[in-house]
Specification:
- The structure is a single chain.
- The chain is an all-alpha fold and 415 residues long.
- Among the domains are: 82 residues, no CATH class; 148 residues, no CATH class.
- The N terminus is likely disordered.
Length: 415
Amino acid sequence: MRFPYRATAPSAFSRLTSIQCRYASGQAFKAPSLRGQGRRRMPDYGSVPSPPLELFTSATESGFNLQWMEAIDIARKCISAAKESTETSTPNLVKDIHSDLHKITMVAAILQRSPRHHIVSEWLLPKVAHAGEPMAILILSSRLLNSKADNEAWLLRKLEVLAQQAKIWPAMVLYGSILESKGQLQSAVNWYQKAVEVAELSEPSETSNYLFSTSISRIRQPFEAYAELKLKLGEIDDAERAAELGALRYDRSQSFAILLATLLKTERGSDKIEEYLTKCAMGDGNMEARYHLGKIYLLWHLGLERFEAISVPDEYLSRPILQKLLSVSSRYYSPNDFCNMAKEWFHLAITQGHVLSMLQMAFLLREENKNHEGTLYLDSVEEHPKYAQMVVKLRDIWDKSDVDVSAITRKSVEP
């Protein structure tokens, strides 16, 4: 017989969604123990309902390598184990939950996504990480990149051991990233290089489970981590070779962005700049790539002299690069086509809130004698405090077609 959920004292978990009510546990919750009240307060696991079915079915559809029925059974047992735990007891998770540590960790990664079940995940992960479960170590270690806590030495040691096994490249990249954040750049380079070697020999399925968790999925690809650090160290050729691996073999937009940076630093490969920017702009919706792609088409529409008169100052596309780009413009499009393409890319960047694209659109419309339409974009730019004073000055000269706007923007827009 199923009992309706009865809330206890108000807590962070006192509100239930209709979905959670449907799948709430059939057992009445126990009153919290009064033993050890003087010590640190334990989280109120008793108020955590059984997880909703949809939490696991949606995860299965997005790549969760575990059947939802088994996953929800493990989740309920995890919640039960958390309820029965005390500060002094260390449960035998494998015995109590009747599952292996990897499956428990995968379920914990899913529970992280639910505000109602997050505390159970936080209770589970350190325990399975202490037991040496790789995915749990990766999830917890990924937080060290954004934390200055010095009390996680045990976790860093676990990660180092996992990286030294040279089997799981995310562990090697993550350990290298932590070393890089501590200023140990050469050691980080060595770890990234080893990770590249392991990744080249690995099948995607071998690491997909480790990258399932949202926090782990932010770990960089090894060739990108290596290329970015080499670029930072000024070793352009090494950075370019590593970026080419990710860009040309795996078609990754971030690798194209790094490869593009190497071309711009060396002021060569101008015939590839449009292609690489398009990969970045279309691959992951990079608004900076969309903005700069729009500027290239604007250059091909106006020519260098008119372009410089209305262009927002930009260190990214230097004058030598612009001159080289002029020589590689496509013969298949007319100047009017290039104008429309520029506007399309600016509009896409604007939908993402890119302020300089708004400003560039205003200047382009002014160039076309559509001053009123241009002021609508100026209104949006003015909402940003950094550019408010600049917009005031622009309004004073907006209807004077013989006044160059670039002089005003050059003082206000930092390259």
